[in-house]
Amino acid sequence: VQLVESGGGLVQPGGSLRLSCAASGFTFSSYAMSWYRQAPGKERELVAAITGAGSSTDYADSVKGRFTISRDNAKNTAYLQMNSLTPEDTAVYYCRARRPAFGRDYWGQGTQVTVSS
């Protein structure tokens, strides 16, 4: 099982980034996917989540209207489109795959997002 995040980097305030999470080793479409982030000195927090079929999404209040979670089950990949970034969005971003009914819970290694001028 592998979750590999990519797309992080340094961006100026107001800019955009798209994170990708490439999954392998499990039936991707059967898993809810989510993105978390952890800033220095802070707890890891849920940013956005999407159901296996992609029919339902949920967002943290701090990112509503700016971030969009999506998935392509044919490519076994989840995405996080981040717009209007602010320095407060600086964190390591992690993707997570869950199938609670089967006790399955996988995490990626994280990708750094830094928003700075």
Short précis:
With 117 residues, the chain is an all-beta fold. It has no helices and eleven strands. 0% of the residues lie in helices and 53% in strands.
Name the features.
four-stranded antiparallel β-sheet; 11 strands; globular
Textual characterization of the structure:
The protein is mainly beta and 117 residues long. 0% of the residues lie in helices and 53% in strands. The protein has no helices and eleven strands. Strands 2, 4, 5, 6, 9, 10 and 11 form a seven-stranded mixed sheet that branches.
Measured between the Cα atoms of the first and last residue, the distance is: 37 Å
- Count of separate DSSP helical elements: 0
Major sheet description: 7 strands, mixed
Beta-strand content estimate: over 45%
| Radius of gyration over C-alpha positions, nearest whole angstrom | 13 Å
Structural class: mainly beta
The proportion of residues forming helix, as a percent range, comes to under 10%
